[in-house]
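User: I've been going back and forth on whether these two constructs are worth ordering. Before I decide, could you fold them both?

Assistant: Sure. I'll take them in the order you sent them. The first construct and its structure tokens:
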Amino acid sequence: DLAPHLNRHRLTNTDRHIYTHKHRLTNTFIHTHTHKHTHIYTHTHTHIQTHICTHTDTHIY
């Protein structure tokens, strides 16, 4: 589910930068807090996906 997400993310240059930055920060957290990483990652992914979906929909419309 990363290939399609990256394609849509490409449309948002600003959002893409934030997503990459956040992912790198979580990489360190996974080493210390493996359980927390899953919780944060799932929550962030859902939030970002919803935001992009709404934004893209408006743009296409």
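The second construct, handled the same way:
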Amino acid sequence: MKVRLFALCFLLSGCSVATPDPALVGLGEQALSDSKSADASYADVRATQAQALFDEIARLCGTTSDGATPEACRYPKAEPTVAPLAPSDAASGVLDALPSLDESSRPRVAAIYTQLAMMAGPVSATPPSAVDAAMLEWENAVVYGLDVSLAFSGSATPMVEESLKRHQELVASLPAGSTPAPAAYDLSQYPPVEATSDFLVAVEADSVSRWQSSALASGNDEWRRYALVQAGNAAVRYAALVSARGEDPMQAPFLKLS
């Protein structure tokens, strides 16, 4: 009877057999392998990421007539056979897979990359010739705001100088474009520069979100990859700042997987 129903499926218009996204399967199985790491923090993060990726596979596949996930799309199926990777290598694998993913899956996978990048540390990247002008404008605004905040930074001066240096380097690496004069930069929605720590955290958190958004909105694979790397680098800076305040950087909204 099952064979007859299977054959009938191909005769009826609009009927298709659910197939799991191979890129998501690969990422999920890698995350599951990494969840066996001796590093408990990394293992926990990768276990959560593996489940998020398997959930994404199921979401894309849809459900059967009785509301169940098709058998072909139920993961994990067995213990992973791939070798575990360090955070930096796992992050690179996510970047490599991103272009082949369904557009609706990219926000969740971008958050996974950002989590891994936060654990792996900063990465250098060469920008493509075509850039998102809004991001160049944003980075110039950040440099302006951080420069002003130095006058009020006190004991936080080393943190401000480090963040300012990284944003200046980023601006210098991007192709020059038309940006507003410093007086036109509006940072009024952020904590006052006098509240140095709060200002720094807010700016770096927004840097992550803006670079993520730029990556996800781009139709250019090169820029998407570059922008996501910069989101990860901003996340590294954010993590250092909030960790110094005794807070858990993994609780940041831009890292949510749902």
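Notes on the second construct follow. DSSP finds nine helices and no strands in the chain. Residues 133-249 form a domain with the Ferritin fold (CATH 1.20.1260.10).
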